[in-house]
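Exercise 7.
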Amino acid sequence: MTTPAFFQRSELTATLWMFRREFLMVGFFSMVANVLMLTPTLYMLQIYDRVMASQSELTLLAVSLVTLCLFVVMAFAERMRSRVLVHAGVRLDQRLGTQVFNASFESHLNQSGTSPARSFTDLLQVRQFLTGNGIFAFFDAPWAPIYMAVLFMLHPWLGFLGIFFSVIQVALGWYGHRNTLAPSEAAATANAEAGIFLQSKLRNAEVIESMGMLGNLKKLWEARHTTAMEQGTLAQALTQRVVAWSKFVRYSQSSLALGAGALLVINGELSPGAMIAANVLMTRALSPIDQLVSGWRGFISAAKAFTRLEKLLLSHPTRDAANSFGIPKGSYELRDVVASAPGRSEPILKNVTLSVAAGTTLVVLGPSGSGKSTLARVLMNVWPDVTGDVLLDGTAITQWNRVALGPHVGYLPQDIELFDGTLAENIARFGKIDSEQVIEAARCTGLHTMILRFPKGYDTPIGEAGGLLSGGMRQRIGLARTMYGNPSLVVLDEPNSNLDEAGETALVQAVRTMKAKGTTIILITHRPGILEVADRVLILQNGQVQAEGPRDQVLAALKNTARQPRPAPDTPSAAASTSTQLSFK
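Solution. The predicted structure, written as tokens, is:
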């Protein structure tokens, strides 16, 4: 059976189409359960109109036994449809969990504004709606006209009364949705903003406490908190008003239905048994409509979550595992690369052209804000807005499979991110731990002896983000993680920013070790001491390549430029000279 075109839009819709049999089963069990919902009505009719009139205990026993059997079947149908949906929900999560995780991670990596936590909340919301009472309302709603028809069979006025209360419920639900949805969403957004503001400030509690900033930040938080409280109060007041009216309609319906039945009995148009049965039947007839109205907000929220998930999966489809080109040699070529960022009027990198042969150690220099870190992210294919060609071993970096490429690449960003786990797990990138390679990476960075001093050695937990370690220690662990597995390509962004003299010596030795193995190394730094290990030097200024070539030639050019006499101030040549000197800073 082929998938309809509507369900071929994304992995999400295609996955939902795979569960069509489960939904058909739920529809069948819903049909059985709703038909048997007429059992209490029929039982009352038999009790009042037959048993009470005939005074027959045998008839009472037979009717009761048949009714109990029907109730058992109804309970079985209710249980089965719930069970089918629960199992379908688990399978849905298993099928989509990995895709949503990868897609949300890529979206967050590309600075698209999608939070992985929000994506999984959306998936949970869709799954809970499809397996909860909300979906049952849609399966039960088509049976409301059947119950209404039975009411008309008992008496036309009872049917019209049921339709009247149905219209009232729908109108009340529409009014509640229209008037409470926007305030509720505004209140939720305000609460989330206040919470995020507070959490972000608590991460810097030491700075806040040491410089007495708590009072100032408290005022900012109180403003957000007050706004959230006002929005919440408004939304709660509107919701309570709708709930009060809903209760009034529900209680009025039950009493008026009984009163209308009594009037018909007095006029001889209805039997007492039919009066009681009609009251129960009207409640049952309006129940699916009431569930549909009360669950409409959940449906709207689930529909929005579904749309966000579908857009996410369409924007970030499953990676093609076939795009694996083996172990990279490490040669890079950049052709007219331009890297931009939202909110900037001009690019960060401007027409950068560069060629790095495999096994080369390239040191990148330049003042702050020249685009060095952006260049590192472009080389690692983690910068979202890039034009031009970035080639690794002659193949566009975007075509490489990241999972297959990852073990052969090392990357040390400026902000060292360690994860909750042991030292060995962090060095081994939370994969299968190869003890020999972990120790080798630690030795190359001068960590081995230091780690052995910990009570549990390599099995020592470091806490979330490595909060129990010093800045220099975190940087060395990050460097060891970069070197783990003898990668073919390593990019180091300010690897010595937190290192002392011993740490920098260990860094130089680590770079020498990697060079001896033929690793391509691209090292970004401000410190000139690391230049002794460089084969080539690149100078960046204002996002443009000012100089690039063999180390000794570039350093000689720097010295010659520094020796040149400066022109008189306030002349064009003076400005050009100053710019050149800044380029080789």
